[in-house]
Design brief:
The complex is a heterodimer. By secondary structure, chain A is mostly helical. The longest helix of chain A is centred in the C-terminal third of the chain and has 34 residues. In chain B, helix 1 links the parallel strand 1 and strand 2. The radius of gyration of chain B is 13 Å and the shape is globular. The chains are: A mainly alpha, B alpha/beta.
């Protein structure tokens, strides 16, 4: 049991180390602001809104998938959330999603609950930054 | 009723189950002067393409519920009326094999996620022009 824990931590840590560690990369996010060259900030405000709503929903669905031991569904939600998180600069959320997606199944079964806790924690860290960005844009 | 593809079509078919990416694509396509037709899964995209070929281009997420982007592109390449519609695949997979599979299936462009705003716009313009 003890050796199993050490082993799983080592694998997760190595997967985590493959991706950047910044919680919210505002440079990534603000590139999309430049796309709204017509002076409208609406696009980025809408994207943040959609992301926050969708991520919250997916976290719930991922917990449901885990409760039902549906690991394929869990990975599918993680895959989707990783794409939008990386695109909007939520690097740590993307990183944990990547771990959920790519861990071997036997490892995921052992670590899924812990990874979902990490995901919820990372999302709670990134959320205020995104809301601040929204406030900045609406001023 | 089957809608034939018009050479001057302004419509772009977008299929992505991620609402953030779908909205981003829809907004950019609109901003570029085209008309997006957006759906949230592969099955809906397939249903549309069965009766409607009036599209300037198509953008598909690789992994979607019900039917994957790759399968839709394969279908498009078997239908004469859909053959000339360029298709861009978007995916979170960074694997070279996935890119090779996309091109082998008949995709015109391949855009890995996460993408920068500049890369997205460049890819979109390449696809549309």
């Amino acid at each position: 049991m003890w050796s199993e824990q050490i082993k799983t931590e080592t694998i997760s840590d190595s997967l985590f180390s493959l991706l950047p560690a910044e919680t919210l990369d505002l440079n990534v996010l603000r590139q999309f602001e430049e796309l709204a060259s017509d002076g409208s900030q609406d696009l980025l405000i809408e994207l943040i809104d959609l992301y926050l709503t969708d991520a919250q929903e997916r976290l719930y669905l991922m917990h449901s998938a885990l409760a039902g031991q549906d690991y394929a569904l869990l990975r599918s939600h993680a895959h989707c959330l990783r794409g939008s998180s990386g695109t909007l600069g939520a690097m740590q959320v993307a990183r944990v999603c990547g771990a959920i997606e790519h861990l071997p199944l036997s490892q995921l079964v052992l670590e899924a609950a812990q990874l979902l806790d990490s995901l919820a924690e990372e999302f709670s860290r990134v959320r205020p930054g995104l809301l601040d960005e929204q406030r900045r844009l609406t001023k | 009723m089957t809608i034939q593809r018009n050479k001057t079509s302004n419509r772009i078919l977008i299929a992505d189950d991620d609402p953030v990416i779908r909205h981003l694509l829809t907004s950019l396509v609109t901003k570029e002067g085209f008309t997006p037709v957006a759906v949230s899964d592969g099955r809906d995209a397939y249903r549309i393409l069965r009766n409607d070929s009036d599209f300037r281009a198509a953008i598909f997420d690789m992994m979607m519920p019900h039917l994957e982007g790759l399968d839709i592109v394969k279908y498009m390449r078997t239908e004469k009326r859909l053959l000339r519609i360029p298709a861009m695949m978007i995916t979170s997979e960074q694997d070279l094999k996935v890119m090779v599979e996309s091109f082998a299936a008949g995709a015109t462009l391949f855009l890995p996620k996460p993408f920068t705003a500049e890369r997205l716009l460049t890819s979109l313009r390449m696809l549309l022009n």
